[in-house]
Amino acid sequence: MMGIEHERIHLETSSVLIRQLPHDQVQQLEFWDICPEAGEAPQNQLLPVPAGTVQLGRPKDHPLYGWDNEYGSHAAEVADFMAARYLVSNREFLAFVEAGCYQEQQWWTEEGWNWRQFKQAEQPLFWIKSEAGWLLRTMASEIPMPWNWPVEVNYLEARAFCTWKAAQSGKPVRLPTEDEWHRLHDLCKLPDQTDWERAPGNINLAYWSSSCPVDRFQQGDFFDLIGNVWQWTETPIYPFHGFAVHPWYDDFSTPTFDTRHNLIKGGSWISTGNEATRHARYAFRRHFFQHAGFRYVESSAPVVIHDDQYERDSLAAQYCHAHYGPEQFGVSNFQKSCAEICLRLMQGRRLGHALDLGCAVGRASFELARGGFQQVTGLDFSTRFFRLAARMQEEGGLRYAFPEEGEIVSFHEVTLAEFGLEQTRQRVQFYQADACNLPEKFRGYDLVLAANLIDRLYSPRRFLSTIHQRINPGGLLVVTSPYSWSEEFARKEEWLGGYREAGEPVWGIDGLKTVLSPRFRLVGEPLDLPFVIRETRRKFQHSIAELTVWELL
Questions:
Q1: What's 58's DSSP letter?
Q2: Contact at 8 Å (CB) between 471 and 377?
Q3: Residues of the chain above pLDDT 70, percent
Q4: CA–CA gap between residue 41 and residue 151 (Å, rounded)
Q5: What is the per-residue burial (b if ≥16 Cβ within 10 Å, else e) of 445-462?
Q6: A Gene Ontology molecular-function term (predicted)?
Q7: Distance (Å, whole) CA 254 – CA 311
């Protein structure tokens, strides 16, 4: 089925390429009939669309074939808006051309104007200016301009038209979002492909091998919600929650999750199979051409750009995998183990406010909150780690691309819900901060966890000699470290161990005791705690941290 559906895509994209070949290099065939209906376009009008909820995502048990980006789930509340009854016709778009808007930068986005300048475009690609008037290039013919057919443009042109239209009307005119397109589709109660007795629009090669008048196929109060031409939206394609890469075609969707590929909806006259279904999600670069036009809407609701794409920084991905990925070589999740040990130590003590210093992407913070702490603050110096931890707290999920080998990556999505941590979100907050120079507001903690932090600080001595100011009397400081001292992070004079003094070795635990003993009491014996960080498919770091517990005197 994947092979069949892929060839259907080739059928459509090839027809667009054929349409751009020199006219004398192609031949109109009898069984690829052009629609004979042409005339003057109807006056477009805006109709009200009531607010409502949309639910997107193809169910896993759906009987029709779907590409991987169609699966998962997305729900949204759509505000009420006005929508054009018809697709924008050639006649309606002519006003934009005759107003000289292809020569006026004010109507274009920066990207759009750069494209216009590069292509020296003065009208839509398939329009031909002749002595006899405007002509339209179909797939293999040039015909007198059918003014009542939909105009076919790229996203950049459609967006410029909407900007111009908004200025003319004084109203917030723009392209619809994917959610708004689905709201229209739901209101008009359009059947999906398996329920057709006959195609309800100019789609699936059911009628002609060309576009047709914009008032030919009515669907509810609107026309051409599906079929005739694809419809550009304001929404760059993004993965739904629960998206999983198909193992047989792992680069079908993910290269487009870059906010530069906008979704087209509804299908065209040559869209067949999956392309002609409600759940279809195809996206193109904004300067590309397809058999695509547009419908405009009037709405003051902001356009949501889903920029929660896959984190591709290799170090950040490693930490995401270490915090939320599967166990490796039977070694328990390090962050979860640290939190569990802390919670056992806190039995009989006040579970007020905990501080997770060097929290990275936040797993221990959430585990401490689940264990009973009323409030947990996670701090990390790294912007990328803080950003990911905050996203996990705000949205309940993360996506990351893990480096497997060379340029090959695997794609992952993790959620708090799958670890039973969803209910902790309101009791955890993340900030970016320097552990050696903490702002005054970070104080009053019953527990401070500094997991694998001290050997990455530029001044571990300053941190340890001042952390008591942040802890409540009788509170606990839990420190773990593999003591990987390096001048990459701190000068040697700052190291707590890993050097010789008077010929004798000084170990990390010795340095901890020296700095902390004046204000803390060591509780119990140090504990070895292993952890594994997966770097690639075949390379792992297997380390052993030493965990010590200190009670403030």
A1: B
A2: no
A3: 99
A4: 11
A5: bbbbbbbbbbbbbebbbe
A6: formylglycine-generating oxidase activity
A7: 12
Beta strand pairing call for 471-481 and 499-501? unpaired
How is residue 175 written in tokens?
Answer: 């392209």
What does the DSSP assignment read for 325-365? S--BTTBPPHHHHHHHHHHHHTTTS---EEEEET-TTSHHH
> pLDDT per residue over 346-405, tens digit each?
999 999 999 999 999 999 999 999 999 999 999 999 888 998 999 999 989 998 989 999
What one-character DSSP code corresponds to residue 42?
A: P
> How far is C-alpha 389 from the chain's CA centre?
16
524 near 345, Cβ under 8 Å?
Answer: no
Q: Give the C-alpha separation, 31 to 157, whole Å.
A: 32
Residue type, 282: Y
How high is the pLDDT of residue 270?
97
What is the DSSP track for 115-162?
HHHHHT--S-TTEEEETTEEEEE-SS-EEE--TTSBP---HHHHHHHH
Q: Of 288, 280, 244, 237, which is closest to residue 258 (Cα–Cα)?
A: 237
Q: How far apart are CA 61 and CA 195, in angstroms?
A: 17
Does the 2-34+47-298 domain belong in CATH 2.120.10.30? no
Please report which confidence band the pLDDT of residue 246 belongs to, taking 50, 70 and 90 as the band edges: confident
How many CB atoms sit inside 10 A of residue 78's CB?
A: 22
User: Distance (Å, rounded) from C-alpha 323 to C-alpha 362?
Assistant: 8
* Torsions phi, psi for 100 (to 5 deg): 75, 20
pLDDT (tens digit, 9 = 90+) per residue, 123-139?
A: 999 999 999 899 999 99
Domain segments of the chain: what residues? 2-34+47-298, 314-552
- By C-alpha distance, which of 389, 410, 408, 58 is closest to 242? 58
Strand residues in 33-94 grouped as ranges (E)? 46-49, 52-56, 74-78, 81-84
pLDDT of residue 305: 86
What's the confidence (pLDDT) of residue 310?
Answer: 66
pLDDT digits (tens, 9 = 90+) for 28-61: 998 899 999 999 999 999 999 999 999 999 999 9
| Helix/strand/coil for 73 | strand
Is pLDDT of 311 > 70?
no
DSSP states along 190-252: ---GGG-SS-SSS-TTSS-SS---TTSSEETTEE-SSSSSEEEEEEE--PPBT----TTSTTS
SS (H, E, C) 311-330: ECCHHHHHHHHHHHCCCECC
Superfamily of domain 314-552 in CATH is Vaccinia Virus protein VP39 (3.40.50.150)
Partners of 478 in the beta sheet?
449, 549
Is residue 84 over pLDDT 90? yes
pLDDT score recorded for residue 308:
60
Do 2-34+47-298 and 314-552 agree at the fold level? Answer: no
The whole-number pLDDT of residue 342 equals 97
Check whether 324 has a pLDDT greater than 70. yes
